[in-house]
Design brief:
The chain is 8% helix and 30% strand. With 410 residues, it is mostly beta strands. It folds into two domains: 183 residues, Sandwich (Immunoglobulin-like), CATH 2.60.40; 206 residues, no CATH class. The strands form four sheets. It has a six-stranded antiparallel sheet with strand order 1-2-3-9-5-6, with no helix packed on it. Strand 16 and strand 17 form a beta hairpin. The protein starts with 9 loop residues before the first strand and ends in a 10-residue tail after the last helix.
Length: 410
Amino acid sequence: MATEMTTTEHYGQWQVYPGNDLSSLALPDYFSIYLSYTLDTTTHQGLGLRISGSFPFARYMSVNIYGARTGTSLGALTDYQILTRHPNKNPFVAGNDEDELNREYVFNVEPQSDSASDQTGPARENLLTYDPEDLLNPAIPDQKLALLTVIIRYYVPKLSEDGHYGGVDAPKVQTYKLPDGIPQDAPPGYPTQMDVNKSTFQTRLAPIFTTAGPDNRLRFYHAAGSGQFNNADNIYLICAALNVDGINNCVILKLKPPSFPLTHDEFDKTQVRYWSFNQGNPDTSTPLGIKDQDLKLATDGFVYLVMGPNSLSGKAAQNGYNYMAWKADKQQAVILYRNMLTIPQYRGSIARVPQLPPAADPPPPPPWPDSVLAADEAYISLCEYAPVGKIVTTREFNENFGGMPSPGFA
């Protein structure tokens, strides 16, 4: 599948946030696409949304609804949960053809107080409802608009030659009057403007930089990250990487990875749907990532990864190390280890790692005592299934792989 994604301000009725664009915030995965439509429910009251489209050719799809000013999910549908009507089939359901031609879906979004669920109207399958009060952020005084945001996510989408994300047309947004279901013309989407939340995102990310220890060892933690347009299907570990210039020094990592599907028919047979490593900047943009299918296993069943200057790529490849350039901020950066749709039985599930307690807002320095950081480090709960690593000089990597040699690719 092609994965090169370019910035498009509008895609039909949608705004597009490619994960590989530095203007996309909230630490998106590098190989994701967000399609966003925001309804001004103050100006356009008493409306339901009916969104119809075709399932993308992609590894994953989901729908979340958010209060635009809170960034908190108010409801969600994962791809395999979306029901279809004959003759359409959901290609994300294991056993269905991933190249199915009849792949159309419909979902509806309504305020709870005005729901038309008992009325004659649009198809009632795949209904998401929200409390209008949840569209308001108590921390923002004098809000004049209650904004509802719908985000459709594609991961590892095919990009067709005509620029269609996931190889399909943009979903269509329609509205209907509640409670009678009478169709209305859909208003233009209100600008989602995720960058309005930029300072909030930065403030919420900042405490993680205090978890870096006095040595060069990398410490991974399970941070909640609430209020950043989170997706419930995603769970990740995050690590602070300070003063990595990607020239004189580099990052090395080791991990026993989860199994993942190579075809849609394997969606119900693997430990996760998708996993990846991503670099993150202090402003919560994602300068670079590397995904599961691009990482080679070593003979001991681990993945070894170096992030640094291109001069290391040859030695890395010859000695069982995967290579990734360092593109993140040279003073403060984060590394994210992301798992998508983890099965409960997976012994390496990030859900087994205690979440760091929420930092105070604004956070006092430091927000977490050493005892908490020592107890909550991911390796304590997951052992070899948690990423471990350190920051080493490029000379150390060239001499002895920073003391973490790989046995070679399988």
